[in-house]
Amino acid sequence: MMNYLTSEEVQTIVSSKAQRSSLKNNKTNELFGKDFQSLKGKNVQAVFKQQYNPNPKPTPYDTIVKPPLFDAFKRMLTENVDVNTALRKAEEEANKMIDSMKK
User: Fold this and answer.
1) 19-44 as b/e: b if 16+ CB within 10 A
2) Do the beta carbons of residue 3 and residue 22 sit within 8 Å?
3) Above 80 in pLDDT, residue 25?
4) What is the pTM assigned to this prediction?
């Protein structure tokens, strides 16, 4: 199954639908977005020149600060809390958790 999904045939279809191919293959890159009229005449090859920054190194605090962030997101969706208020409260909770972890 994985061989099929990563085959040049399938990845050519993926690339023509304006999704980045998992192959490092110039042929699939050249076909990027060909099925979209809105991309005709555009410099779509610029997509492949992007240099991504490395992911930040994990810290010991990452796992303990995720729950307050998820709770903030839930409050924004269910309680109509605005973004700034939700994130401020999440930051306060996370800082308390980090302080207690440091002790």
Assistant:
1) eebebeeeebbebbbeeeeeeeeeeb
2) no
3) no
4) 0.51
